[in-house]
Structures
1.
Amino acid sequence: MKTDGTREAALNLNAETFRMLGHRLVDQLAERLAAMPRGPITRADSPSAVRSALDLNGPLPESGMDAASLLDQTTRLLFDHSLFNGHPRFFGYITSSPAPIGMLGDFLAAALNPNVGSFGLAPAATEVESQTVRWIAELIGYPAGCGGLLVSGGNMANLVCFLAARHAKPGLVYASEETHTWIQKAADISGIGAELMRWIPTDASLRMDVAALRRQLDADKAVGGVASLIIGTAGTVSTGVVDPLPEMAAICKEYGAWFHVDGAYGGFAAAVPEAPDDLRALSEADSVAVDPHKWLYAPLEAGCALVRDRELLRAAFSHHPPYYHFDEQATNFVDYGLQNSRGFRALKVWLALRQVGASGYRKMISDDIRLSRAMADAVDRHPELELMTQELSITTFRYVPEDLKRSAGSEEGERQLNAINRELLDRLQRGGEVFVSNAVIRGRYALRACIVNFHTQLADVEALPAIVARVGREVGLVKVAD
């Protein structure tokens, strides 16, 4: 503090300096993003190499450094030591290429820095989030008058819906063996225990077996069990399979259970004609979880929980201690979820929805699905690859060398193929040419390629089989230890 009462804060930047740094950073990012498709997806650095490159082993510095030099250095180091899910040949996990307007939206949101927990602290941000929730519901065919809010991602969106369901209808919970691991976390957090969980097997297509579901419901009902919640999946993580949602919706009505759909990945595909008809049953669910940072291409983080009856959502989370004095006519998102302090996640999603509209999203999602089908066709044509599944925008396959084709299906042959493909995946991920992940399908280790990437072109998907086969030959026959 100066003697005249004015203050000098080390973090402050005057308008001229802020403008200069911002323009310089945007120029650097534009150049780096434009060059990304010509470079590797990842350099596969070890943790120690990353720590060394970014000088992350040292103590907290006593004195700071010039902001311009700091930003220049950090930009260079981050781009030199990161994996790029915006690369057109990133086919790994269900993480999308980030929309440029979303990047700018996060910048604007950070400048405003509203706490979107109450209307009074964030009037504009609250209303933008409310409209974003309505638009997301409208896009997937869900009632636009529902309750909902933006959260960090699929785990949290599903958890919010799970807790709302459990508050409204205590009892048994039914989920298929292919349900994402968020369900185990939700069961632990809610304290329901394994005795209240019912795991339903899947059919030959890896969809929930509704006949087995009905048998379990009847068996529980016979001994006084009450069905609380039945969970369907709109696009499983491993293969993109959509559960028989219309049949499940009907069973939920019959047994008085809450119907929740985990649509974190595939829910947005309900907007396009190429998607499975079963997705139309999203409109019948009591709650739905979707992830804008998947198929709306929003930068991380952005999940969304939707609950048909907004009052049931509010009842699960609303608590008003004496120091909370909110206008009941306003939306206060603190009453609809787990967080009190909430960032302005909705802005990047809202901007992108306004930029391209529903038709723009329908085209991009449709293109991803068509490209995945083209990839499956290319894989199927390759003599050294075996196509396993293709659903939504996920293709699974494996490398099968000529000398193992006859033994495929035998116990020993499958052991060797699993080992070869595990090693192949590791080399592909470290190599930087293409990035795929894995799935295990009926005990068979598969390579898995998911396209939620508006940068991906037909040439990228058609290049994949040759790259995989070439690296597969380098792996050779792996001896599997007994």
Note: The chain has three domains: 15-81, 114-343, 367-475.
2.
Amino acid sequence: MSEDLPRRIGFWGGSAIMVGIIIGSGIFATPPVIAKYMGSPALILGLWVVGGVLSLFGALVYAELATMFPRSGGMYVYLNEGLGSRVAFTFGWTYLLLSKPFAAAAISDILATHINELFNISMSRQMISAVVIVVLTVINVVTVKGSSIMAMVLTSLKVLALAAIVGLGVLLAKGSSTNFSTAPRQLSAWVAIAPVMYGILWTYDGWADVSAISGEVNEPARQLPRILLVGISATILLYVAVNAIYFSLVPIDEMGNLKTVAPLVMERLIGPKGAKVVTAIIVISTLGAGHAAILTGARVTFAQARDGLLFRFLGRVHPQFQTPDVSLWAQAALSMIAIFFWGKFEDLAEGYGFTLWIFHALVAASVLVLRRRRPDVERPYKCWGYPWVPIVFIVICVGMTVAYIANDPKKTLPWLGVLFLGLPAHALWKWRTKSSERNMSP
């Protein structure tokens, strides 16, 4: 078997996968939630920039590690190199059982809901979600190059759709500058910043997943920093512009009473058909996010199995398609279990969101550890602003974790328990491995 998967993904394909994961349903659903907490459109727009910059800090951290260790597996590889197999195993355990299956299931649930709305049907959301996951998994098993092309097509469509909202808002000039006036809120701005940043950073989440396919990117030392930095920068510009158009057309008090703002914006721009247009946009957006999540998620399980920290069959490379087919199907099976047992997006999202911020902090800590312990390792790209950028990023990750738990401890603590079960599971796995080696020795 080859040491890693073939390098078939270029700059545009990698950028499309990254942006495809970031831009999902959040940009449509998060602005009304933020409007409930904070009444200043100008301050909110500023915080969208801040959220993007903080995500950029994370991208700078990951760029150093991705070019040092350009192998499939992303976060798992960095934690293994920086903090050891116990932490890496715990991450891989959580990622396999919780993070990626629940993420794929949650995205598919949103997609299923909007497919029913778009076509005026009432099919089972679980069945639609399951079919979507199977179809996207087949595509990812059959071809990496085709998956990369599909990511580029879907990402281009969703970016063009959001750009169209901005373009129509500017060209038709139906907005009003008076909508940018500050409205009173019960919470002070300082108190409201925590939940607002929670929503903004959640909407930016997904930028790190491109590191999972580092082993399949052409010229990784040159391409990976460009993919991370260009992808985040483009997303910041798009998010700020879209939110500015939202505010110009919908007063902030009205926005705070909506579930999603884009349908009303499009209705005020192009008439009653606008809601259908936005529904189609959300279908395309979530389809792209689901495809990219499936593509990247299986690479962590694949890398962990290759290192002997999971069952070896999960590290299989398909002899014809050169893809991690077993890991992809294992991820699909776990995603479908999540769909049929948990079902709703809210329950699925709460099951995976906050655990990733714990591991983001540990990845940033790995940069600090590796700079001290392994200073001679070649670093084609060094994190700008070291050590303050990693430190600030760690503080933000810890804050996000605390915010998740404080928001609903009854729902988040059980998932934290799944994470910590990875520690005894690692000890059991090491014991099993040593026992097998002793039995095989002459």
Note: The chain has 17 helices and no strands.
